[in-house]
Each structure stands twice: as structure tokens, then as C-alpha cells.
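Input/output pair, single chain:
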Amino acid sequence: MKKQIMIAGFALMTAISFGQKKEIRKAEKAVKAGEIGEAMDQLAEAEPMLASADNELKAYYYAIKGDVYLANSGKKDFEGLKTAAASFSKSLEIEPDGDYAEFAKTGMQNLRVQLVNGAIDDQNSENYKQAAEKLYVSYTVSPADTSDLYYAAGNLLNAKDYEGALSYYERLIDLGFTNIKSQFAATNKETGDVKKFANKTERDLLVVSGEYIKPEMVKSESVRPEILRTATLIYSNTGQLEKAKAMIKEARIANPEDASLIRAEADIAYQEKDMDRYNELMKEIIATDPNNPEIYYNLGVGSAQNGDTEGAMKYYKKALELKPDYSSANINMAAILLANESKIVEEMNNLGTSAADNKRYDELKQERTQLYTDVVPYLENALKSKPNNVEATRTLMNIYSTLGMDDKFKATKARLAELEAKN
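Output:
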């Protein structure tokens, strides 16, 4: 009797397995025919019996499920793509070398193409957070290609998710990621410039045409210095000074003349009140390119962020010596000067009506007039290179009005109306 029961049970399990396989095959045929809804229905019928299936059948089920969700998702259905990724991974986890392993691996490669293409679309529409998520899933699908993790980190940086970006950069540093690749290259016969090509065929055709000479393989530059620099700056900007100091040492070995790294080290020295080291590093930054207004402007921004207003003004003025119409430097100079207005106005409002108060009021009024007079050339120069700056135009218009410069006030008012009509 027991033997008969066992045989009957075995027969039942065989029937269930056969039924499942039949439904999975139907799902496979349906997805090939583009009948995604039918494929989903067949998978739904097979799923409840999955617990009793053998590993081969389970691997088959998840491989087909991945294929169905991949076909259904396109580039835009990220949740569907994640389901496809999980399904292919599950299939390979169950039977890494089974009958359906190659099918699942091919599915994963196709999935990766979809994820990367979707991420590119997201980047182009400035949806950096979702681009990073897609690239990270692509990395989990194919961990051997660490470049997806690198690009995911860059997108998180653009999304201002510094903590998330840092975690990816830390992982890349631990992995020793460099992104160095061999590339097909040749030299332009006319210009002497070396050009890199996507593939050997494209390069060789241009060499045969005579347009290019000296076909060769070249190595791309390592991105490790950039990763170290970015991680250092994030550490520094988020107050993790000890980690920043430790990483700066390695980063500066890789990038000895990188002004942004020297700037980061200088910021740390300033925060630690090590002014001798700070001033030494400031000189080092300037020495990298002493006639570059961008360097002085960036030093001005850094000084302002550290609360060193006098230092900021000194650097902005130097930037303007080198480039008088440098709009950002002009605007920042105007902003620093105008920041003093609130103190003047507050004191004026708190004065009484005594003779001494009236005298002080007149003094403050003159100070305010002088402040506005000092600001005017900075805003005028800013608008020479960036004439469509609405806020700078509005501020200048109000100052002209206060100073009684009626002709300039009317002209600037008309210009402001013109700009606002465009927006």
C-alpha cells in the first residue's frame, strides 16, 4: 500500500512539473510572438506550483520571466526592468551552468543595453537620480564592468546626492577602478592630431583612404585621480576633515598640480585655523596659472564661503584686473558691497530726532549713497558680458533711481521690461 501511495505521489509531481513546463513554454512562445499579455498570463498560471518544481524548471521559469519583463518594459518602465534583472539573476543563482544559463546571460546583456540607453535618456532630460539608479542596476547585472558604477556616481553627483555619490566612489577606490581601456587610434595626416575610433574597421578604412596614418593602439587615461579628487572634495565639503586629509595625500600624488585639490587642502587648513599653511597653499594655487582669472574668481568664492570677505574682495578684484567684464566676479563684488546696506539702513531706522541723531542720519545717508555709487560700475560691467541677467538689471535700475540718475533709470527700466517679457 505504501509503495502504491509513493508511486501515485510521484506520478502527481510529474504531472505538475509537466503542466508547469507547458505553461512556461507557452509564455516563451508568446513573448517571441510579441504577445506579452498572454506570456504574463501563462507565467501567472505556472507560479503557484513553483515551490514543488525542480531546480531546472525553476531556472527555466525565472529565465523566461526575465525575458517577458524585459520585452514589456522598454527603456522607461524601470520597475519592470528591475524585475527582469532580479529574474535573470535568480535563474543563474539556481542553476549557474544549467540548460537555461546562456539564455539568462544573453537576457542580462540585453537588459543592460536597455538600462544604459534609458539612463542616457534620463541624463539628457537632467533626471540624474533615475539615471544613477538605472546605471547601478546595470552594474549589479554585470559587476565585471565597473564603469556603470562610475557613471552612476557621476549622476548622483549631478543630482547633488553627495552621500550616495561618495559611497560609490569609495567602492570604486576599494576596487582599484581606473577605467583604462585600449583604444584604436590613428594620426590625421593633415593636422597631426591623434584621433581615437570606436572600432578597428572605422579606423582602418580612414587609414586606407590616406586621410589618417600611423594606426596604433593607445591607452585611455586613468580616472582614478579624478575619483580621488572628487571623494576628497566631498569629504571636505561635508566636514569629514580627517578623511579628507587622508585622501588628499593620495590624491595629490596622483594630481600634484590640480588646483581644486590644493583648494580643498587650503579650505581644511582655514577651518583648522592654520593660516600659515593656508597662505602657503594660496600661493601654490596661483602659481599653477598666475594669469588665469578663473583661479582668482574661485579663490574669491572659497574665501567668501570661509567668511573671509576681505580676502574674497582681493581675489575678485584681481580676477577683474585680468578680465574686466567677468560677469560673475563683478556680481559677487556688488553682492559683497550691498551686504553692508542692511546695517546702514537698520541704524538709520533706529535713530531718534535729536540733533546728534539727525547728524548721524545724514552721515549714514551719505555712506549709503557712496555704497551705491561704488556698486554701479560692477553691475554695469557685469551686464556688458551678460546683458540678459534679469536680477542684475533690476538691482541696477533701483540703484539708478535712488541715486537720481533718471536717464539711466528709464533706459534700464525699459530693458528690464523687455527681459521680463521674454521670460
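Residues 1-19 have pLDDT under 50 and may be disordered. The radius of gyration is 33 Å.
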